[in-house]
Amino acid sequence: MRAHWKTSLLVAFGAVAAVAFMGAAKLRESFTTAALIAPAPTRIVYDRSGAFVTQIGRVSLEARGEPSIDYGYWPLTQMPDRLAQATLALEDRRFYEHPGVDLRAILRAAWRNLTRRGRAEGASTIAMQVARLQHPQARGWRSKVDEAALALALTQRFGRDSVLRQYLRLAPYGAGSHGAAHAARYFFDRPLDDLSWAQVALLAAIPQSPGRMNITRESGLRLAAKRAQRALAALQRDGVLDVEQAAQARRELAAMRPVEVRRRPQTLHIALRYEKLAREGALATPSPDDPRIHATIDLALQDDLARLARRYVDHLRDAGVRQSAVIVAERGSNAVLAEVGSADWRDPRAGAFDFTRVARSPGSTLKPFIYALALERGVVRTTDLVDDVPEGASGISNADRAFLGAMTPRQALANSRNVPATNLLRRVGVDAAFDFLHRLRLHDLDAPPESFGLSMAIGSLPTKLENLVAAYAALAEDGVWSDLVFAAEQTGMAPQRVMSVDAARLVTSFLADAPARLPSFPRYGPLEYPFAVAVKTGTSQGYRDAWTLAFSKKYVVGVWLGRGDASTMREMTGAASAAPLAHMVMMRLHGVKPGERADDGFAPPPGRVAIDMCLARGADGRCASALTEWAAPQDVAAAPAAQTVAFEAVAAPGPLVIATPEHNTRVWRNPEQPAVMNALALKLRAPAPGEQIVWQIDGEPFALAQSEDTVFWPMQPGEHRIEARRALQPGKSRAVRVVVE
User: Could you give the CA distance from residue 565 to residue 562 in angstroms, rounded to a whole number?
Assistant: First the structure.
């Protein structure tokens, strides 16, 4: 008690005799260097529906030397009159009468601290508190004298209103919030001028002890409300509030409940994304008075996809999958709607890594850009044939260790054949391809292109999921690259054309052509949708990474599966693992009901004409298989009159072969989908048209259908044997084993 009394008297003496102790020169220095300073305002990030995402605060050192994160410090362009009146009623009733130090209050506090027991009474004025908030230091009589001297200087130099406004910008309001404007938005989600008298009084009460009066807790709210009642009583005595206004404010205070704590998303990757953008200077608030950030993220979708990815990884753990990443962007704007950085932030096995930003081997996902460059430079035409043969393959093989012979560029890319892709890369030039991929922001490596060589086409050039999504969005947007957008206030590079409309639309048509994927990828699997989707999978060497990039007319989806330690998975290809997850994501985004189909496709390349190209002829000489191709007019004139090109002949139909599902397929049955959606497509490979086929499940007949039809079997958990046989004729397929989980 005696220590408080001594301190109070010393402060009073120091304030009166500051000139004598400091000297005239020191006093002049204090008055000339005094300034109103505040940290940069905190930006609060809200998702597209107004839900809280995160705050971007500042790391500071507290008086005891430990780091802390501070939030707030929003500017005040004009005085918030009601909060100012409530604050002065509690903190400094003679604010407009004293010069920055209230000698009467100091002497009164010294006397009361000497004669009374209990909590010590202070006498710091608003100006002195501003001095302490701007220059915090350990408590003691020297610091009090310094605060008093600076308070006098601030008041003299800037005036009382500016000092009060500065206090309201710096004052602590609990839960890390500093400044009234930030606290009003953070606690009550409204501007400071829209607060009720009860809310104003509550805020005015908190700075005396923000830790004890934390209004996110019941105990803290009770303490703050008790002190707020004092503010209301003083305002009523001063005539600021009439009887009814004061009564209404008291009723509202009594009914208040603790403020809901603003929590970040369960996965912190998206919060760290916004902190990174702010650190890089890529978030520009439109108004300094309201530094809110309007994120493009949809937190509800984000949480939904995070749960989906987590369950899906759990389903594939036996195959060695440990992590996943998903990005969903809106077509046209490149606004990111969801970004899942890992399967589980809390997973000690690299869960804290944001795998949307980790460079990994992209497998075959770079092939579409090799084809785009080749088409743009005239190295290959859509009506040409490219060879998928071992000769001249430079030791590069295909993933299935097989070769399909001569094919069109459409087929070669849709089948993701390695040999044609590397041959095209050789023809366009490694240097040119390396530069092109750099223009697409797929890498920023300062390395010689020859260090990657032809293997660039099959995954030797590392890249990130976020970069792949932006590059595929450029394909979707007719060859115009734009950065991914995470907030309305985001700044960045202007959109740039990186390839021609013709090349972008041709490659899009290749990737969206389901029949062209045969025979490498069976029909009606996870690469096929009931609406137009261009899709590409990728698998890195040793099954370390599995990728799928897909875009529709509304969305761009990117999926990665792998392990944090980059070790191998068990034969997890992009088509077998990442593609089903991408399919589920895209279907959720579109909300397509079972049985619905959309017949509209992507826009055709301008100036080209559609021709039918015969890929295989039957024994009778008629075309048994054809693809539609977009040809340049000069190429059509050079083609046969029938505008068809026969690439190879096929023998008469042989034994029945099941194309889908593949042997030893493991299928995940999604319990959240309607039963009609949990159906497995049954399809024959190259069937002879017109035959009647009996499909059998576990030896029992399931359906009678035409050989060219696709049959859908409602999946049941367990291990099953699927067969196809000719009706009333000899001929039976090899049994296919399927495990449904």
Answer: 9
All residues at 6 or more sequence positions from 682 whose CB lies less than 8 Å from its CB, including other chains: 658, 660, 661, 695, 703, 710, 711, 712, 713, 722, 724
Q: Is residue 724 within 8 Å of residue 697, measured between CB atoms?
A: no
In tens, the pLDDT along 696-739 reads 999 888 888 888 888 888 988 999 999 998 876 677 899 999 98
Residue 623 CA to residue 119 CA, distance in Å, equals 97
* 353, 272 contact by CB (below 8 A): no
Contact yes or no for 544/459 (Cβ under 8 A): no
* pLDDT given for residue 111 in this prediction: 60
738 has which bridge partners?
A: 665, 720
> Tokens 């077998």 correspond to what residue?
576
Structure confidence at residue 22 (pLDDT): 47
Closest by CA position to 414, among listed 452, 386, 379: 386
Is residue 333 within 8 Å of 477, Cβ to Cβ? no
Q: Could you tell me which residues are beta bridge partners of residue 740?
A: 667, 718
CA 382 to centroid of chain Cα atoms: 37
Say how far residue 569 (Cα) sits from the centre of its chain: 26
- Pull the structure tokens for residue 32: 């000339």
CA–CA distances in Å: residue 398 to residues 339, 361, 389, 410, 450: 32, 17, 10, 17, 22
- Cα–Cα distance measured from residue 362 to residue 212, given in angstroms and rounded to the nearest whole number: 53
DSSP letter string, 451-469: GTGGGGGGT-S-B-HHHHH
Side chain identity at 435, as an amino acid letter? D
**Residue 446 amino acid letter:** D
- Token look-up 């070790």 returns 567
How many angstroms separate the CA atoms of 504 and 630, rounded? Answer: 13
The one-letter amino acid code at 94 reads: R
Instruction: Tell me the CA distances in angstroms from 297 to 47, 105, 484, one per residue in order.
Output: 5, 52, 12
**Helices (H) then strands (E): counts for the chain:** 21, 26
469: amino acid identity, one letter: V
Domains of the chain, with CATH numbers? Answer: 187-259 (no CATH), 609-649 (no CATH), 658-740 (2.60.40)
Nearest to 336 by CA among 584, 534, 592, 48: 48
Closest-CA residue to 409 (of 393, 420, 422): 420
**Cα 522 to Cα 123: distance, rounded to the nearest angstrom:** 81
Question: Amino acid letter at 253?
Answer: L
pTM: 0.78
- Using alpha carbons, list the distances in angstroms from residue 722 to 577, 680, 693, 719: 22, 11, 13, 10
Residue type, 319: A
Q: What is the rounded distance in angstroms from the CA atom of residue 652 to the CA atom of residue 338?
A: 50
Whether the CB-CB separation of 602 and 511 falls below 8 Å is answered with no
The SS3 assignment for 711 reads: strand
- 162 with 36: CB under 8 angstroms? yes
> What per-residue confidence (pLDDT) applies to 614?
80
CA-to-CA distance for 248 and 196, rounded, in angstroms?
Answer: 10
Question: Which residues of the chain fall below pLDDT 70?
Answer: 1-30, 59-68, 105-106, 108-122, 140-141, 391-395, 594-596, 599, 616-619, 637-654, 670-677, 728-729
Tokens of 179: 């400044």
Q: Which amino acid is at 625?
A: S
Helices assigned H by DSSP within 656-721:
none
State the maximum Cα–Cα separation within the chain, in Å, rounded to a whole number.
117
- CA gap 193, 173 in Å, rounded: 17
- CA proximity to 368, closest of 509, 525, 466: 509
Rounded distance, CA 312 to CA 583, Å?
12
